[in-house]
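Re: weekly structure request thread

Next one in the queue (350 aa):
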Amino acid sequence: MDRTPSLLVDTSTLLWLRLDSFAPARHTPPWEAAALECLVLFDRVLLDGPTIHANRERLQWTTDVGPGFQILDLDPQAVSDLYLRGAELFQQMPDVRLRDVLPGGHTPPALAAEYPGTHFYPSTYWDDVVRGLDRREETRGVLRAFTSAFGSQPRVFGHGPLLLIRLFYYLALQESAGSALLLDRSKAYHDDSPEYGHASRILGVFTEQVRAAYLQRKEKWLGAAQPAVPTPVLAHYVKATAERRGWSLGRVIAWLREQPEVHAFRAGMAALTDATERGDARTIDEIMAELDEAAQQWSVRLGTPVHRRTIPVTVALPFVESQVRVPLPNLPRTPGRKLLVFINMLLSSD
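Done, posted below.
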């Protein structure tokens, strides 16, 4: 993760997330929690302009996002060049039997929506792919490039070729943007989602230790049972805020990205990453010690100030003169505190 990390998100992921929804589902699968975390924490989020504009009715939240979101407006020639670059990247792969790796079955609607100007039905076959892509100038070249690998009439469903072509399109766009890449889980060529540095692990520790202790106390005194599968804390906060404020998930994400607690968290993560890359064991240990102390204290009482400092103040009252100690404001100056101010915000809303 560099100082100003950026993340390219494919349009299928955004369509699957249904961020225009005002009634988010209670259950949050791991891929959804990881995607919500990335959309909040990455400084810059890049979106594929042609497919965003083509699906604007299902992505209304993208019409009012902050400067951290960048919709990459690509003309047809640029799209065609990316497809062809994707074909070049595909040809560099080791020889494999495509029939063994390509998914079969019906074409998901979210994948079909990434081909503006065409209409691929769920039961799409290769000949349907040929007709659809050959009609459009920006996809005609990539069709010819991939035909040599597929053969003129391979006996495969259209789902696999359509997925492969879009996968390598995004790999080419990622190469051009120099960013991390978040793919729809059906496109992913590995199981790991991109992460914002060590943020997932840090948030996970606080979720397991602090939130678990809080829920145990809550169950003991109020009788509220713990959830069997607790939702990761950031995803829980996004959905709870949407429900509490009557906002869409997309609006919550756009609002949360601009909060000072999130900016502080990013600054803390940047300092931690920088220390890790430099091998600065002392700085790393200072940050980890502060987080560890907070986790232990918050397990007893949520939000307990860490290393609360005070200053002496002389108070003059009639017939009384004494000196008292007044707490200093707990400003997030150290990297550890910059991380904690956001974590406290998330946990305090549980």
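The first helix runs from residue 11 to 17. The chain has two domains: 6-182, 199-227+259-347.
Next request, please.
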